[in-house]
Amino acid sequence: MERKKAFKEFMTRKGLKSTQQREIILDEFLRSSSHLSTEDLYLRLRKRHPGIGYATVYRTLKLFAESGIAEERHFGDGQTRYESVSGQEHHDHLICTACGAILEFENPEIERLQDKVAKEHGFRIKSHRLDLYGLCGKCQ
Amino acid sequence: MERKKAFKEFMTRKGLKSTQQREIILDEFLRSSSHLSTEDLYLRLRKRHPGIGYATVYRTLKLFAESGIAEERHFGDGQTRYESVSGQEHHDHLICTACGAILEFENPEIERLQDKVAKEHGFRIKSHRLDLYGLCGKCQ
DNA sequence: TGGTAAATTGATTTTCGATTTCAGAAAGGG
DNA sequence: CCCTTTCTGAAATCGAAAATCAATTTACCA
What we know:
Strand order of the largest sheet of chain A: 1-3-2
Strand content of chain A: 15-25%
Radius of gyration of chain A: 17 Å
Oligomer: homodimer
Order of helices and strands of chain A: HHEHHEEEEHE
Structural class of chain A: alpha+beta
Number of helices of chain A: 5
Number of strands of chain A: 6
Distance between the termini of chain A: 39 Å
Mean pLDDT of chain A: 94
Largest sheet of chain A: 3 strands, antiparallel
């Protein structure tokens, strides 16, 4: 799996150590659905690995984000969520405010317009966030 | 000022009371620049009205948001900011990650594309957020 | 206009997620 | 295998948001 390799490379480059916990957390993270909070992942892990503490999960997710294999997300609820990132393709989110469902979408045309807007204002964009909030088909 | 009227109407409709503090907070809020945090507004008010407590500012800003004359905003720093809303025109934000400057922009075409995306996924959009993060002209 | 019920206020406390601390444990280079 | 550095887990701390509560203020109406 290329994300595991990318993470390992990052760790080496930074002089950080490979530990059993980090291996386990990475595996569980990659296996799980996206948009998990630290709490979510911690609870999942606890089933098979009760020894792993919350702080370690928290720090390891931060590392994932730093290494580029994950991204932090903030949707309205006060929780930080992590999403695994594969390659370069960017996507945005549709969030159902009733059931909490999160859908991903891509729209290159919107991206292009964003760049145009930024240019018009003299900005150099490093990242962006586009979240659409509403009701999904089921919840309407 | 129409926003004051709109707020008064909201208060009446909800059976809430008009108080001296709420008047003062509303005046200061409308007079101030946008994107203020609760803390910001509280500190401003304290100069002339030391008696007004933080909790009252906090609750009153919530009321503004509920009434529709203000909107809550969350940009990367862990603070809730409030922006006064006039009429219907919507806008999005460019945020400089170096100096914290916040620029507003409007782009109807992006809005249109968002609606299209939502429709394609069976969503009914209630709100959205588009934040572009990067470096402003000065900070590059 | 005075009485009263309901809402509001300000200080404080509580909550909650995020982050830090620290002593003991593990990694990994020599 | 040793030694230095990094890591771990439990617990403490932090900061903003939210809730609490007794005292106060408001709105309404007799």
